[in-house]
Specification:
74% of the residues lie in helices and 0% in strands. The chain has 149 residues and is mostly helical.
Length: 149
């Protein structure tokens, strides 16, 4: 059949890696949520911790993306394609919930990555992302594109 040993092994390897990274992402997002909701967010130390966590999370997501891309598109399973989680990515970049709500459920990070910057920005704007959110997300996309390019 289509899934020969090689492809099957590649898929399960990628899935295992994405799953392990997802556990780390979930833990880090939990910490990030805690830090962001603390009263003393103005505190320099807290800000520094937040930045460090965000950077770590971006690295995990880039690794998930790399893992997924190590598998030929035609061999990728729906489960594998669900990584990296778009919602995690939006949360990391502190996109407001009201903007996240506007984003169509079927849009994926991959779809956004395939758009050119102008188009991505226009879409983000349409969902009510602020200039700051737009530029944060643009930077994030650029970072992911580098990994995958």
């Amino acid at each position: 059949g289509h899934m020969d040993g090689g492809a099957g092994a590649a898929v399960s390897r990628a899935l295992q890696q994405c799953g392990q990274l997802q556990k780390l992402i979930d833990i880090s997002i939990g910490s990030l949520r805690g830090l962001r909701t603390k009263c003393s967010v103005s505190n320099d130390l807290t800000q520094q911790e937040i930045r460090t966590l965000e950077a770590k999370l971006v690295k995990y997501i880039c690794k998930q993306q790399q893992s997924k891309l190590s598998v030929t598109p035609s061999d990728r399973t729906a489960e594998l394609n669900s990584y990296p989680r778009f919602s995690d990515w939006l949360y990391i970049f502190n996109v407001r919930p009201e903007v996240v709500q506007e984003i169509p459920q079927e849009l994926t990070l991959d779809a956004l990555l395939e758009m050119d910057e102008a188009k991505a920005k226009e879409m983000l704007r349409r969902w009510g992302a602020s200039t700051e959110e737009c530029s944060r997300l643009q930077q994030a996309l650029t970072c992911l594109r580098k990994v995958t390019g």
